[in-house]
Design a protein that fits this description.
Blueprint: H1 4-24, H2 34-37, H3 43-66, H4 71-99, H5 111-133, H6 135-142, H7 146-162, H8 167-179, H9 195-231
Bound molecules: 2-acetamido-2-deoxy-beta-D-glucopyranose (3 copies).
């Protein structure tokens, strides 16, 4: 029988492995769909569709990190995730630079190059999910790491120029850049997941409850004299 501590440890290991798998495996079109051959869909359009599917899985993973264990365990998990994520991106960057790929170039047919691209796109997006949904934990590690900051600057530019990040993913990229201050924050920028925002929301809810209560009391008070008048 496993005791609770070793069970928790096993769960943690499995969860970490799943995340590492998610970071290092990418969406790849092994075989082109018939649509592409007929020219109905460009390889870029095809990739975007797969990217969207992978994004959905990543978002679920990040949401489960949000809900995972205690703060200390979440912190440990996020730290490990970030280390792996930036390592993969960094290697992909070296490869892409070596191969001379520039974002905005036609979407490559060569699957080795596509694999490198996917790693940058998908892991940058995943970093976006992480920093937006677990801001305090991510900042506590990321803000101290100059290499990661430089690398993310490159990622932001690379992804923005790629044509892959539109609509939802474009918004994610834009919010991520504001959260880590790669670009200036818009006046209306807030992250609802920071501890500060959460506390503010709690206070507001508390305040609203009070307001409702006092309103009720006032109404009752107003009613009061009327009743007395009737009695009189
Ligand atoms: C970089 O390229 C090498 C050689 O093609 C490959 O083995 C490696 O997996 C690539 N790394 C990444 C992160 O794409
Ligand atoms: C794909 O690109 C890599 C890196 O430039 C190259 O080594 C490889 O031979 C290419 N593969 C094909 C099938 O062209
Ligand atoms: C924030 O302001 C910018 C322009 O300054 C605007 O484009 C954006 O839609 C606003 N966002 C929200 C959530 O109101």
């Amino acid at each position: 029988m496993m005791d609770e501590a070793s069970l928790r440890c096993a769960v943690f290991r499995t969860f970490s492995l799943l995340i590492i798998l998610l970071i290092s495996s990418v969406t790849l079109t092994k075989k082109e769909s018939p649509d592409v051959y007929k020219g109905k869909r460009s390889p870029l359009e095809m990739y975007k569709k797969l990217f969207q599917e992978h994004r959905a899985i990543q978002l679920e993973a990040v949401k489960s990190i949000q809900n995972y264990g205690e703060y200390k365990q979440r912190h440990q998990l996020v730290k490990m995730t970030l280390e792996k994520l930036f390592k993969v991106i960094s290697e992909a960057k070296v490869n892409l630079t070596l191969w001379g790929y520039i974002p905005g170039d036609p979407f490559p047919e060569n699957t080795t190059i596509r694999d490198g691209l996917s790693k940058v796109f998908e892991n940058t997006a995943m970093f976006g999910d992480l920093v937006l949904r677990l801001p305090d934990i991510v900042h506590s590690t990321y803000d101290k790491n100059k290499d990661w900051q430089l690398l993310l600057g490159w990622c932001y530019w690379f992804c923005k120029e790629s044509g892959v990040f539109d609509e939802t993913n474009g918004r994610l990229l834009h919010l991520m850049a504001q959260e880590v201050k790669l670009i200036e924050r818009e006046e209306n920028y807030t992250n609802p997941f920071t501890l500060e925002s959460q506390l503010k929301q709690q206070k507001q809810r508390h305040g609203e409850k009070k307001e409702i209560k006092t309103k009720k009391k006032k109404k009752e008070r107003k009613k009061g004299p009327q009743i007395t008048r009737v009695e009189l």
